Amino acid sequence: MKKTILVLGGGVAGLACAARLLELEPTCEVTVIEADTQLGGLASLWRCGEFAADLGPHRVYTELPEIATLLPELIAAEDALQVERRSQLYLDGHYYTYPVRAGEILRVMGPFKLGYYGTSAIWGQIRSLVGRPLSYADAMRQAFGDALYRKLIEPYTRKVWKTPPEQLSEDIARVRVSAGNTNKVVQRLLRRKDKQSRPTALDRFTYIRGGVEGLVHALENRVLERGGSIETGLRALAFESGGSGVTAVCAEASTEESSDSFFETDVVVSTIPVTDLSAMLGSKLDEGVLAAKQLEYVGMVLVGVALAKRQMSPNTWIYFPEEHIVFNRAYEPKNFDPGMAPADRTLVVFEVTARLNSGLWRKTDSELRELVVHDAVEAGLFTRDEVVETFTKRLSHAYPIYTRNYRQLLSAVCQALGQIPNVITTGRQGLFNHNNMDHSMLMGIRAAECVVGNYPSPAQAWYASLDQFAHFRIVD
Ligand SMILES: Cc1cc2nc3c(=O)[nH]c(=O)nc-3n(C[C@H](O)[C@H](O)[C@H](O)COP(=O)(O)OP(=O)(O)OC[C@H]3O[C@@H](n4cnc5c(N)ncnc54)[C@H](O)[C@@H]3O)c2cc1C
Predict the structure, then answer these.
(1) How far is the CA of 429 from the centre of ligand 1 (A)?
(2) Per-residue pLDDT tens for 4-24?
(3) From edge to edge, which strands make up the β-sheet containing 261-264?
(4) For residue 446, is it within any domain?
């Protein structure tokens, strides 16, 4: 019999999964449903009048051999722009080059202050020989010393994650820098390589002409060429179950153009937030639902400010660790691809993270725009006269928050999900994984391979194999 497979979510994980399913089993019937009107999820293009931006500029970089082979098939060589990284960090009214240059710090701080931070860092390293870090705060104190931790890392962490660093897992350091110990953080800050000669920070990277949606369209084309269907504007809302697991998915139209639908299915691969999936499965998960309720994502508001000038700065990113400035990071899409803005104007996008129930998130778009413009003017980025127009975009699931107990919670959720044999959750949102696109694509591909793998319970095989993703690391 023809197998019917429903993929929830049309980000890169869902699309890569659907394409691989159809490659492995061309006769199966694969449908992707996406709640948004456009595909791509976090890898979508944001159109702001005559400007365009990724939702956070998406560099293309991978250390995964399978994805390194796949990417040139998806992105034409002439569209793979090579961009030189130029980033800065704003602290105490100075813009420092980032990763930092020792000479520059010495010039700005002077030998005494630098000596103070240096000595404190050496003490931190000595302490790391005695005790394993129990939290992100411990890990960072050991890597950088108390002084730099308090000055830079503590405020930046609170600001990005909206969580005290003592409550966060050491995994954040491991994932964002490199699998291994947190000394890699220092290596990255100083732009060194790790023991296997892999970069700890990127000097140059690939950016897709016209934005990351180029990759999404290439994946979409693969799914369609292989006979799959994709429906946008449809939000999966509820499951129907029988003896052998889920038998159908009810989806509600999220736009006027689409209509409510009902999909009978043999298997569901979900890439939607695992918290939403667990809520949809409800009582079937028992304790899994309770655990899922404790997993939280931090949201992000992107504020785009269009300026009546050719360029604000030549930087790819500028970081703002201090808490009195509302945004964490700023970027100019034009510095990644000049085609993202008209020649005589530029767009600067500011990233503001916020918990979904917080006062910051509840502010109106115009209040947030005003806060951002005010702080940007104070930081000397532009003048009010130069502002032509402002835009806002909200991402409800920007980053999974790795609290100290997130692994136990996730494992309880996965254990409960394993009882439903024909539902598999994968991707960044589906496995609560702070990852990059290459990782998400591989997670989608591996989920497809598991579905067609003739296991009596694909779900149990899947949740027993999640260690395969433990080595993922993000190189910034
Ligand atoms: C600020 C920022 C910068 C980043 N920069 C980079 C970078 O430089 N390089 C890089 O490689 N990666 C980067 N990433 C990470 C990258 O965006 C993600 O790893 C990747 O896009 C995740 O893909 P996904 O398909 O797993 O999840 P998502 O993209 O989140 O896809 C999930 C999809 O499910 C849909 N959905 C949710 N609920 C439902 C429902 N009920 N029914 C149907 N559909 C639903 C969503 O709309 C979404 O489209 C960045 C991420 C952020 C936030």
Answers:
(1) 7
(2) 999 999 999 999 999 999 999
(3) 234-242, 245-253, 261-264
(4) yes
Residue with CA closest to ligand 1 atom 10: 436
Model pLDDT for residues 304-319, shown as the tens digit of each residue: 999 999 999 999 999 9
Residue for token pair 């000394």: 183
Q: What distance in Å separates the CA atoms of residue 168 and residue 255, rounded to the nearest whole number?
A: 38
Alpha carbon nearest to ligand 1 atom 29, residue: 41
Cβ atoms 62, 441 nearer than 8 A:
no
For residue 308, report the distance from its CA to the centre of ligand 1, in Å.
Answer: 31
More confident residue, 109 or 87: 87
* 475 CA → ligand 1 middle, Å: 17
C-beta of residue 281 within 8 angstroms of C-beta of residue 459? no
Whole-number pLDDT of residue 198: 64
Cβ < 6 Å from ligand 1: which residues? 8-14, 33-36, 41-43, 56, 58-59, 235-236, 271-272, 276, 398, 427-429, 435-438, 440
The minimum-distance atom of ligand 1 relative to the CA of 15 is 25
Q: At 291, list the tokens.
A: 């655990």
CA–CA distance, 431 with 422 (Å, rounded to integer):
16
What is the count of structural domains for the chain? 2
Cα–ligand 1 centroid distance for 132 (angstroms): 32
Are 407 and 289 within one domain?
Answer: yes
Q: Is residue 229 part of a domain?
A: yes
Q: Are residues 127 and 159 in the same domain?
A: yes
Question: Which pLDDT score is estimated for 181?
Answer: 41
Strand partners, 307: 346, 387
Are both 31 and 180 inside the same structural domain? Answer: no
- Is there a single domain that holds both residue 185 and residue 151? yes
Ligand 1 mutation target, pool 176, 261, 271, 474, most atoms within 8 A of CB: 271
Residue 193 scores a pLDDT above 60: no
| DSSP per-residue codes, 16-83 | HHHHHHHHH-TTSEEEEEESSSSSBGGG-EEEETTEEEESS---B----HHHHHHHHHHS-GGGEEEE
Strands 87-91 and 94-98: antiparallel
State the DSSP code for 211.
Answer: -
pLDDT in tens, 159-188: 999 999 999 998 888 787 533 344 545 555
**What domain range includes position 189?**
100-200
Give me ligand 1 centre to Cα 110, in Å.
Answer: 43
